[in-house]
Amino acid sequence: MNSPTKPRLVDIADVAGVSTATVSRVLNGKDGVSEQVRHDVLAALDMLGYERPAALSPKPHGLVGVVVPELTNPIFAEFATRILASLSNHGYTPLLCSQSPGGATEDECIALLVDRGVRGIVFVSGLHADTTASHEHYTALTNMGIVVTFVNGFAPEVDASCFASDDMAAINQSMNHLRQLGHTRVALLVGPRRFVPVQRKIAAFCASIADHVSSPDAHVYESLFTIEGGHNAALRAIADGHTALVCASDMMALGAVRGARSLGLSVPGDVSVMGYDDCSLAVFFDPALTTVRQPVGSIVSLAVSTLTHEIEGVPGPREEFLFRPEVVVRQSTGAAPGQTAA
Amino acid sequence: MNSPTKPRLVDIADVAGVSTATVSRVLNGKDGVSEQVRHDVLAALDMLGYERPAALSPKPHGLVGVVVPELTNPIFAEFATRILASLSNHGYTPLLCSQSPGGATEDECIALLVDRGVRGIVFVSGLHADTTASHEHYTALTNMGIVVTFVNGFAPEVDASCFASDDMAAINQSMNHLRQLGHTRVALLVGPRRFVPVQRKIAAFCASIADHVSSPDAHVYESLFTIEGGHNAALRAIADGHTALVCASDMMALGAVRGARSLGLSVPGDVSVMGYDDCSLAVFFDPALTTVRQPVGSIVSLAVSTLTHEIEGVPGPREEFLFRPEVVVRQSTGAAPGQTAA
């Protein structure tokens, strides 16, 4: 990139929309200039590709990376949006890296962020949540002094803070809701078992039905965390006689509703469907989705403040923080067929 | 950041999971190493914060910035996802910058991207779409040799390529659909008038009804591009006796449906609602949204290939490319009250 070393005051003044005298005052760190004008002049300097005088460089806190698995699932877009805003509020410059189909992998995101000199990285539902993946790349980061923060997932061997929604509590709450509606044949529809949240949901689900079912795991339907995954798993679960489907994401729940309807069944008349996430559009779906709300705001708030403290040298907690989700009852769950709700 | 200048082969071998001899072969550019192993070794080098030997540096094409106004509106997440994947496929490393409430502004995104040395920036629905905003910062970029590409919006004074959905065609198609359903009292619900797409939609809408309405502009309801904006505009439009609401985004349409229902009206029984965007979840809304599909894939494909060609020195077109959208008929539109559909 062209980066002339000697700023021309007149160019900067032109871009900033101020006089050259004002530019000069800002560059020399003089008083009598409003914060807004100072900001405009520095922005003009940046824009024109000049280096800021070292004494003026207002990058006190530096860059922090944010890595999410995708953006088209609204829950990840919501996590990303809140993390970006929170980092900005803490005075850090966020760099968002989204993995994408045919695009960047987590490793490539990390290489990019390290190359840019980030001081920390927040990983949302990354390889730290995959029990079969190597986590050595995280340790390589912490060995370099880069602070690592995990959201949803757990890799206890990494020197990182962990924040997650409580998957077991989410399942227990979902099961309670469905029991109150009279459902006794409940299936769990999940993504791949190698993920920590899936394993926790399965454990809670099996414990919840173990009293009255001989092989609880037979009621777990493994698929993909997508609309199509939910659709396919729902067809199998319904064929096996289940009247209620607890899904591991709102996207899977959308697919489960579609799957049930493709069989000529009504939701919730014949089959009840519960989601998980409570993405901001869940209330607008058909039917409005009964789901379990991840406390995104609370998770992000604590994760980012912990991360920024760690960057500033304050040791962070190393036990996992679990956040309590809550059931949001809407229209996709109802009394079990032949029952009236309690 | 710590960046030791002299790589230790043993550390690299450790992270890459290969022998030091293999690391040595890769670093010296020797043959007999698979592409995967070569990639792993270079990734390990990156991870450990070492500079790659210049001859090996596989950053042939460099960084390209992507700036979107937000991510929680699914259409922007979809544009971002497709642009990231397309840039990666072209061999560029994308840097995504999302503006966010309480977070970064477009100027801050630009400063960040320029600071990172991007060779081009794609702006989706940015200030280039705002007719009241200064566009000088774009010219400052092109003067620095940074290629600028605009998606949805138009700033002809900037030396940049422009790609957009055809807003006028979208309105004409929407009006045709509603006329076939017998609607004669149609309102247009839009975001702020300072945006190019809004101005184009208003122009097409007014031209479309000018034949049989004395003051077409009285049927335009200006609000915000949000669910709440759609809700509020719908209340006003329905109070004025309109039976069909053409909305400038799917999010506004969701709000319009909610607004109509808050008055005890049914959609589409009493009021028809059309969206614009066809975000990937529109089919799952209640009611499934009749909307106008932006050809996101086609726009992104041409925008990114033009941008990469420009970076490589091939001059790009300077006229605006308009892409034809199409009406997707679902459940939110129906015959005008008292009519049967044609």
Summarize the SSE layout with pairings.
The structure is a homodimer of 342-residue chains.
Chain A (H helix, E strand, L loop, with lengths): L8 H8 L3 H8 L7 H13 L15 E6 L5 H16 L3 E6 L7 H10 L4 E5 L11 H8 L3 E5 L9 E5 L1 H14 L5 E5 L5 H14 L10 E3 L4 H13 L4 E4 L2 H13 L9 E3 L16 E3 L2 H16 L8 E4 L2 E3 L14
Parallel strand pairs in A: 1-2, 1-3, 3-4, 4-5, 5-11, 6-7, 6-8, 8-9
Antiparallel strand pairs in A: 10-12
Helix pairs in contact in A: 1-2, 1-3, 2-3, 4-11, 7-8, 9-10
Task: Tell me about this structure.
Two copies of one chain form a homodimer. Chain A is an alpha/beta fold and 342 residues long. The first copy, chain A, has three domains: 48 residues, Orthogonal Bundle (434 Repressor (Amino-terminal Domain)); 133 residues, Rossmann fold (3-Layer(aba) Sandwich); 128 residues, Response regulator (Rossmann fold), CATH 3.40.50. Chain A contains eleven helices and twelve strands. In chain A, the strands form three sheets. The first copy, chain A, has a six-stranded parallel beta sheet, with helices on both faces. In chain A, strands 7-6-8-9 form a four-stranded parallel beta sheet, with helices on both faces. In chain A, helix 1 packs across helix 3 and helix 2 packs across helix 3. The termini of chain A are far apart. The interface between A and B is large, with 59 and 60 residues.
